[in-house]
Structure formats: structure tokens, C-alpha cells
Amino acid sequence: MTPAAAGRAERHEAWMRRALAVAAGTAADAPVGAGEAAPPEAAGPDLSASGPAGRAAPAGVVRSGPDGPATTAAVPLGPGAAAPTAAVPFRPGAAAPAAAGPAAGPAAGPAAGPARADADVPVGAVLYGPDGVELAAARNERELTGDPTAHAEVLVLRRAAAALGRWRLDGCTLVVTLEPCTMCAGALVLARVEAVVFGAWEPKTGAAGSLWDVVRDRRLNHRPEVYAGVLEDECAALLRAFFR
């Protein structure tokens, strides 16, 4: 393992711990420019290749890039097989109450109470700039806001783009505790992020190697590098605790 790969792996673990804290609600969203720069290259776990069903997938951390997945130290994953460690699927959220219009009256029933932040599936995401400085952080807010697109990844992209004044997030790395869905994977491609780092696999809705592989689709004009399975057990444990 090269010093660069070792340092990258160590950095990804540190970033994932930050994302876990955001997902658990134990860390406040950081303002743009907050956080520390990436640590110097140091020893850490190696990275290996991965891909969707039918490609090679690792027992742990995964790496793939614009030229497609490599084949180093990977084990075959048969068609339709689940990812190495099954993550807990998203729970269908309750529908947000409809806003009362002018015609609404007593017959419409009592108004629903405010949504709680802890009603959302605990997924956290953090975006880091090319220099390793944190740009934005967010957790799922679908239930809290009643917005079906308020996944952690989408919120982070919105916040960083608004603060930086541009939609292109070239050179940035998105770190998220759960494999992105199709919506989020598409948004990451459109935002031109350089790399995606995720923790737990999502075999039922994942779009970064499990069910689909949107981020590495060769038909698209941008393909971020993907590093999967970073602190996978810890990320999956947080989700399992929520669904108990």
C-alpha cells in the first residue's frame, strides 16, 4: 500500500466519524469553511476494488474511479447478490400533513403536531473541499421538513453550492453514512463531485454499487471515484438501532 493510499484511508475514516456524529445528532452542522484541513498522509487500511452486482466487491473498503472498477483484492459478487454487509433499508416515512387552505374548517380534524428531528432516518453527510476543509454538513430532514428530497446528500450539496456561489463542486468529496439512492447519486454526478465515500451498503435502494451504479455509469459525462464500506459496521449499527 502506498503512503498516499494509506493516508487517504485514514482521512476517510476520520471524515466518516464526523458524518456519523452528524447522523446521530451529536454534532452541529458546521458553517462553510469550518473544520480542519485533511491530515497528512499516514498509515491506514488499504483500499480495494468494488462494483455493483456482477462486478467484483470487497470484504471491506472499496475503490473505483472514472475508468471503472479495478480488480485488486476483491471477491466476486454474483448477479443479484447483496452487498457485503446488508444495511437497514430506509423506512417509508409518514406523509406530511397537507396545509390547510381557506376552505379548511373543523371538519378537517385537528392539526398535526410539529415533526421531530429524531423521526428521520439517521443518515449524515459531510462535504469536504479539495483542501480537505469541511464545507457543509447535514442529516436527513424528510420528516422534519415534509420535503421528499431532503436527504442528507442533497441538503449538503445545496448548502455548499449556495455558500460558494456555484453549482459545480469540482474536487470535493462527499462523505455519507449510507450508500446514496438514485436521487442522491444523480445529484452527486450533476454537482461534479470528485469522490463519494459511504459507510453502510443499501442493497434495496443503493445506487453506488448495490442495486444500481449511477455514479459510475459509463454513459454519463462524469463519474466520481467511489470508496465504500468505510466504518461500515458502525454506520449499519446506527441504522439498526433506529429501526428497533
UniProtKB/TrEMBL annotation:
The active site is at residue 153. Its cofactor is Zn(2+). Residues 95-211 form the CMP/dCMP-type deaminase domain. Residues 31-77, 94-116 are annotated as: Disordered. The keyword Hydrolase applies. PROSITE patterns: CYT_DCMP_DEAMINASES_1, CYT_DCMP_DEAMINASES_2. GO terms for molecular function: tRNA-specific adenosine-34 deaminase activity; zinc ion binding. Catalyzes the deamination of adenosine to inosine at the wobble position 34 of tRNA(Arg2). Homodimer. This is tRNA-specific adenosine deaminase.
